[in-house]
Amino acid sequence: MGQKGWTRAELMRRTGLSRQTIYSLLRSRYKSSDVTTLERLAEAFGVGIDRLRSPHLVRSSLAPAVKAFMESPWFADMQPSEVEIEWLKGLPDAIWHGHAPTARTVARILEWHRSSRGDS
């Protein structure tokens, strides 16, 4: 796909994602991407999960939770960088599976992100 020159079949093989999932992702219609899907794509393309942010995936429902997180005691304890805040704001809305994220959820996602990079 794109610069890699892969076919859809090659992307399916490299990620283990179904034909329907790949089709939906390419058409910007995929509504339930989860961390596992994003990790598979990131690994296939050799990039970090944060590089998968896309304007058509990003929606504003996380903004209130990030704002609440920034006003919470977790923010003071964790002292996230500007880069981490931007990463949080750029997470696809679909990973929340229809649930409204809370400040605590945002803190847990940041904890996971740091531990996955070895920053904890």
Could you give a short description of this structure?
The protein contains seven helices and no strands. It has 120 residues and is mainly α.
Polypeptide structure, described:
The protein is an all-alpha fold. The protein has two domains: 2-52, lambda repressor-like DNA-binding domains (434 Repressor (Amino-terminal Domain)), CATH 1.10.260.40; 62-117, no CATH class. 54% of the residues lie in helices and 0% in strands. Helix 4 (62-70) crosses helix 7. The longest helix has 15 residues, at 103-117.
- SSE string, helices as H and strands as E: HHHHHHH
Helix count? 7
Beta strands, count: 0
Largest sheet, if any? Answer: none
- The helix/strand class is mainly alpha
Q: Percentage of helical residues?
A: 40-55%
Shape: elongated
Radius of gyration: 15 Å
Unreliable segments of 5+ consecutive residues: 55-60
Mean pLDDT: 75
Cα-to-Cα separation, first versus last residue:
35 Å
Instruction: Give the tally of structural domains.
Output: 2
- Sheet-strand content, in percent, reads under 5%
